[in-house]
Amino acid sequence: MRNDSNNESRQEDWTDFGRTAVNRHFSKTANGNFIGESAAFNSIFETIRAIAARKCSVIITGETGVGKEMVASRIHYVSDRTDKVFVPVDCTTLTSQLFESQLFGHTKGAFTGAIDNTLGFFRAADGGTIFLDELSEIPLDLQAKLLRVIQEESVTPLGSTQSYPINVRFLCATSRSLKEMVREKTFRADLYYRLNVVTLEIPPLRERKEDILPLAEYFLANQASFYNEPHKVISQATKKLLLNHSWPGNIRELANAMERAYILTPNRVIQSAVMPFEIIVANSQFYPKNKLQTLDEVKRKVIIQTLEFTKGRKLAAAKILGIERRRLNRLINKLNIPPVNGDTNR
Question: I need a surface site. Which of 178, 204, 256, 274 has the fewest CB within 10 A?
Answer without folding.
Answer: 256
